[in-house]
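# nightly structure sweep
# worker-07 picked up a monomer target from the shared queue
# config: single-sequence mode, recycle default, output format = structure tokens
# input follows
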Amino acid sequence: MFVPSLVEGKGEQDDLIEEEQLIEKDFLPAEVGEGDFVFPTRTILSCSKTIDWTGVIEPYGLFNIPLTYDKRRDLQYNNIKYNIKWGKGDEYRVIESYVNCLMLMIRNKVLLNNGNLKHTKITWFYPISMAPKRLRKLQQTWDASYEKYFGKRHDKLHDRICCSYTILF
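# output follows
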């Protein structure tokens, strides 16, 4: 629970609105799936400007999937990482962090709906143009994240090819 801190010249209501907007941007909006915040969303990550990608990092600590992106003003103390599924080298931690955020959201939604984690099936998609080496790394990321948030894998994680087309005018 966030307790409003009174700022001189502002009322409690103003403080609560500001904190609600902060929670929307730094964590999750109150509701996802209707209105402004829906899936699918862009493959981007919002992270602290001071994040150390070599250390231990957990979802919603210093990074999150910004469902408010292009709908609300970004937080000044964060950076947005774009095109992360195509990243190389050190950027691999960024896609790993993105997948962990997704898996934590899915896990919590399953539990919220009284679902059984052991019976949860996840299907993820990738572009047909993805290089085999990159695809293997991505598969390993999904497998590790599934095990972390759902337990040992029992053929509940599936991947699918997604065709991408470029339209030229």
